[in-house]
């Protein structure tokens, strides 16, 4: 999946956390923004990702890491969570959890890609829902299903839940 798809999925994951947690309305804009930002972080392992094009050492990280391996795992998600809670102890937990949900949404949505990801890192298996679900439920990056259907559906859902948060 591409950055806009991951950002939208991160926003939806953050909205779910905020909604289920009954977060005060004042937290929603920052929580949704954090979810979107976190939704693109796992691709730090890809040399041409949005972050690698903009961070000083980004391309080094992209070349040093294998795409869809460590950063696309449950272990990385847990470490990201621990790091956030350590880095920002004064930030309300619901905002940190919304951020982690945005990160993990990236990992999970990449399961729709036939290449899969190393969800159970350090175990070497690449896991993909494409092994059990057919096309068009699973599809390659930049396939028309991602660009036309999934991305637009995610963005519509983002807008609907912002306008009408009781949908969650």
TrEMBL record:
Q: Where are the transmembrane segments?
A: 26-44, 70-88, 144-163
InterPro entries noted in UniProt: YdjM-like (IPR007404)
Keywords associated with the record: Hydrolase, Membrane, Transmembrane, Transmembrane helix
Tell me the GO molecular function terms: hydrolase activity
Its recorded name reads Putative membrane-bound metal-dependent hydrolase
Annotated organism of origin: Candidatus Desulfosporosinus infrequens
